[in-house]
Amino acid sequence: MSQQSIPQQENPQSHDQYREEMIGRANVADSPELLAYYKELGKYKAGALWTIANKIEPWQPKSASVPVLWRYRDLREHVIKSADLVTPEQAGRRVVYLNNSGEQGMSTAVGLLYSGLQTMRPGEAASAHAHSSSALRFIMEGRGAYTIVDGQKISLAANDFVLTPNGTWHEHGVESDGSQCIWQDGLDIPLVNVLEAGFYKVHPELGQAVTETVDSSIALWGAPALRPQNVGWDQPYSPLFRYQWEPTYEALQRYARVSDGSPFDDILMHYTNPITGGHVMPTLGASMQLLRPGFVGKAHRHTGSFIYQVAKGRGYSMIDGQRFDWQERDIFCVPSWAFHEHVNTSQTDDACLFCFNDLPVMQALQLYYEEALTDNDGHQPVRG
């Protein structure tokens, strides 16, 4: 993970109150004359920068999101109930979305990331569609689920990580001999909407013809450190659409045998584009990390928004001084610039955390910064 040092800046927290209020910051008291002036500017769709400067250029990142833990045991029955209330055809996408925006309908789980839980019953299928947002799936439970991406049918199993990149035709379903399935959807919808660049379209035939061998991307691109001869790929996203759980977990275990790991994340590996070695999609990155038995991480913070799903085990995370106890299939988020640390409470079993994030955007725009907590031996005091 690339990293930049923190920009040098005057931090008001390290100065007296006078400097905090005065030096380098707007400090203009209202007067009748100024209020009249602001009103006049408003007539021309304009304004005085000093009235908003302290808000739009803070000393450091301040996320509008807060740390949240979504417990699977609380949401599961509601996700399943959605299948009793609406059909895939009626809903378009039958999803219970995670709302951390403070405003109903804003669809933000953290920062500019969207997350939701989708369910399908055996024999159900959603219509094929395409959109500007990049999307991913992480399979939570069930058997027989599949997705079709630009004519390639991809079978899905628990803890698999699956791509549906922006602009691709895609659809999801469950085979008739499968079981009810639930997966997490992750998208960059809020980012695309902020950029005012969103398009959505439905396939003219509502479904795609399967034109490639099932799971062909795994056959071509799934072997570590090997690349097929004379097979071209010119898209900005990974040609491997399904990252399977078993080889992922095996890779983490091999890494753990030869590494001391990170003091913050223990054994962490990024899902990558097998051609470039970079992120799987231009706007969404993903990783899986293994916390060895008894691991107690130290706290750090970084820019970027992160959504975690517990793939294995149980433990807790401290986020901005709040403790969140998690177990398998729970989801939690870490807002940008929030101190966080992870702990595996088991002394015998691994814990694994899947994560998707906006790291590709942060890094491409040179906005990624990271900082370790140095006080209290690297651990946060509990405040709630």
Automatic annotation (TrEMBL):
Pfam families (alphabetical): Cupin_2
Superkingdom assignment: Bacteria
Alphabetical list of SUPFAM superfamilies matching this protein: RmlC-like cupins
Residues annotated as domain Cupin type-2: 117-183, 289-355
Keywords per UniProt: Dioxygenase, Oxidoreductase
GO molecular function, one term: dioxygenase activity
Cited PANTHER family: 1,2-DIOXYGENASE PROTEIN-RELATED (PTHR41517), CUPIN (PTHR41517:SF1)
Name of protein: Gentisate 1,2-dioxygenase
Organism: Xenorhabdus doucetiae
Taxonomic classification: Bacteria, Pseudomonadati, Pseudomonadota, Gammaproteobacteria, Enterobacterales
